[in-house]
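Fig. S4 source data, part A: sequence.
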Amino acid sequence: MLQQRPYMDKWHIVLVMAFVMLSSCSVYKTVPAEDFLFTGGKVMADTGKLNKDIRTDLEKFIKPPPNSKLLGIPFKLLFYNSVKEPTKSKGYAYNVRNKWGQAPALLSEVKTKSIEKRMEDELFNKGYLRPEVHNKVIKKGRKARVEFGVSPGDRYTIREIHYPADSSVFGKLLQATAKESLLHTGDYFDLKQFSAERERMSKELKEKGYYYFEPDYLLYRVDSLHQAKADLYVTLKDMIPAEAKKVWHIGGITIYGNYTLERDSLIMQDSGRQEKQFTIIDRRNNYRTSLYERAIPIRQGQLYATSMHSLTIERLMNLNTYRFVKMAFTPVPDSITPILNTRIFLSPAKKQTMRFEISGNTKSNNYVGSEISVTYKNVNLNRGAEIFDFKITGGFDVQVGGQQASENAYSLTAEMNLYVPQLIPGLRINTMNNPYLPRTVITPAIEYFQKTDLYTMRSIRFSYGYIWKRGKSIEQNLKLLHINGVDPINTTPKFDSMMATDASLKAAFEKQIIIGTRYLFQYNNTYRAKSRFNYAFDGGINTSGNIAGLFVQPKGDTAGSKQVFNVPLSQFIRFQADLRGYWRFAPKLTWANRIIGGVGFAYGNSSNMPYSEQFFIGGSSSLRAFRARTLGPGSYHTEESVYNANESGDIKMEFNSELRYNMSRFVKLAVFVDAGNIWYRKEVPDKPGASLERGELFKETAVGTGLGLRFDASVLVVRFDLAMPLRKPWYPEGERWVINQVNFGDSDWRKENLVLNIGIGYPF
């Protein structure tokens, strides 16, 4: 092979040279003899006159774009030239010429005068009030390029802004809005900003009842006699329709509760019925009037306001029971005062739906699993836009080969959720300007989980509380009452022996009942698609036994002596916070980061946090280089944890960082680093190194890294993350970094260290 390599290199050189010669000969094959191949244009301007962004904007007007190149070779043009014009709109020749290929960009297609005019208009819009653009064609052989010389002149700024000085109603209103203006003295002239300011002023007038006022009724007059500075005068159009000068009030409100476009003419002929302040046209009587009273903020006699118009539509849509909401306003003829009759058209969503889901998974420890769920949903249970869903889920994880050291697992869960768009019983909070109505949430659930060689776990849950939002960003969830009864039964001798050597595991798996309160605060502004930086925060507190414990008398002075129905009452308080930040460096490049911190305190009747309330780490959405529940706590480690993944703790710290790159519309790449661990607050005799001692936080932090491939179809994201550990906290101090041990060629190293995570959705 060593002797053949120079021979092969020579052939490579020959092939490259032949390709270059071929391309140079055939690139002009379809360029007419009297024409030239257009290789692109460039904007030329005096240094300092135009910034980079404005130059880029101007160059967008240069059409057509030159032919695509790879290593300086117009490869798509070569494809185009390689076949004759096809006679059919299909087949090999058609695909090569029209799908893979690209027709030559010709100089004759460059409309220089039109481009100059568009550039001058763009410069004027940016504040260069006296621009000049000329072009120069540079020909070389059969190729040509165009240089556009730009003499922009001075860029004008706003010296003063003048609003109507008269005492008319419009003059006073425009002067009153001046403090909210988007334009300021010293700003560059910018047509887009001027248009936005007209929209703002028009919106302010509509907010004061001027329903028919339009932005086109406002004009700007410019005094540009000053050097590079100009005075701006906001004026009203001379001829404004009479309706636009009137202040309008809301008249009758008619609600079409079962509107469809197909039955529009029939519905519009129905006279309906009067209920309180509404005329309701809905023969099926789909919704109670009390729902309309809570969801619709506009009232008869009220001054028309754009904000109330938008708020009404948002509130109704956010009930998630309508698929379509529209409002129409019509003037009352021959009325002494200007009145708008209001019509609200509501098209209900499908009331009842059934959803069936099935998923499968495989794990590196020879496990295969599946989960099947059936969900019934009703979006208007009792004519008040109540959302009811009932879900039954069954799943299994079984081992199909390898060392039989783990346990097959089976689960069955039934859960019901009822969302009522009001606070029960009869509580009221100020929702005047909130597009989301508060909801009462009632959730009972039962769960059955079995590990055949270890234990069977039964639990019954119930919660009652409220969810309310403030705009799109803030959501709060308060569970006034949360009950969870945990009953481990049928423990095997194997599991009994595990608990005998693990006191914390035994305490966590005792029969117990949780009666407490939960509060979760969420802030999320990631919906801002144009922002360079977005972030989200989740912070919550869970408690148990703090109030119930006051009313339960202990049967002794030991842990577990406070009992409800002969079941020990858990007493604890738990805090957790999750902060995520997303920096968008470029349209295709995003840097995502997350930090999680949590701590739990068992007290009084409990010596340990319940297993369901403890912290876990590892897995496809956590530290991906470590399998779920096999890491920690602290520097504690046993080989059995690879199979019996039950490790948990009272304290958790985690950090994740991921650089995401969009290869295409559907395929995304990622490079990530994860770090963190869990700990117990107190020393555990049978788990040396499990507690968090002073100064041990970073010494016992696990670190992993890897590569990710994601297929993002918007409605579904399938994720593959291949990870490996960089730091193992259970190794002796000074040897915990294992970067020097990386050996991809060693099958034993790969088996022990490479972890493939398959998930749905992004990890954070």
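Fig. S4 source data, part B ends here. Residues 13 and 485 are 76 Å apart (CA to CA).
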